[in-house]
Amino acid sequence: MLVALFRLLGRMPLSLLHRAGAALGWLVYRLSPRYAERIRANLYASGIGGDETQRQELLRAAVGEAGKGMTELLAVWFGSDEKVAGLAAECEGWDIAQAAHARGKGMIIVTPHLGCFEMVGLFVARRLPMTSLYRPPRLGWIEPLMLAGRSRWQAVLAPASLRGVRMLYKALARGEVVGLLPDQTPGAGEGVWADFFGRPAYTMTLVRRLHDKSRAPVVMVVAERLPAGRGYRLRFRELPAQSLVDEATINRAIEAEIRRCPEQYLWSYYRYKARAGADAPPAKAEGESRKAEVC
Q1: Interacting residues of 194 by C-beta distance below 8 A, sequence separation 6+
Q2: Nearest Cα to Cα of residue 74 among 13, 130, 121
Q3: What are the tens digits of pLDDT across the range 271-290?
Q4: CA neighbor of 259 nearest in space, from 10, 46, 39
Q5: From 22, 259, 277, 286, which residue has the greatest number of CB atoms within 10 Å?
Q6: d(CA 84, CA 68)
Q7: Predicted TM-score (pTM) of this structure
Q8: Phi/psi zone of residue 109: left (φ > 0), alpha (ψ -120 to 50 degrees), beta?
């Protein structure tokens, strides 16, 4: 019944969903001081925005964009195939991804929490078989909705577990595409500390390990929201092989994408926390220890 309701709401114009989302973003921001503080702290610490006036303008935009990220799921997950396909209004670099995939090693798609990252997997799965890693949500009732929304065309979902990682390796061995969120906080022992906007962030090693095993090219993709609900601009760019030597370099590539549309990054995400049991981050340069936050 809930899926049927969301499919009905998914027929609404994206512009209307985005306006409602911007309002929802501000409602959550006003009602949750902890959430508001996390957005401000992460955004301001990034150094993006220049002076105080510019940072305030960027913060206001980021609050609205975070809300859009929630309501647009109705269109992306539950809209008709035709409508969802049409949301990809512009595309830059798909030929680059096609050429990378044509080498026969498979392809690793990495998509940070920027813009409508949910669109990326669907865009690719409409054209190529794609297995995407996902972390089951804490609220169990959301998972069936997530699976229903993401399981479209040639999309296969792999849980963030040993079984799911094996599914990724097998997909690459078949020459298919796999997808990951490279700025998602990994489990203890599955990441290393690497700078992200000048602060240590526990960063997954899975991208590097998949590449080292398969030699599959790594392509970063962003689905940027266009104004007035006109859809999304997808940008594909292949990361040079030398960029995969360490996770810090991958983080720098993510930073470069964020700087292009910083208001659309999910600044509320717990990017600087580590899972329980993870090693503490490295000490500060001046010798002070930085205690890891544990979620």
Answers
A1: 200, 201, 203, 246, 247, 248, 250, 251
A2: 13
A3: 988 777 788 888 754 444 34
A4: 46
A5: 22
A6: 16
A7: 0.92
A8: beta
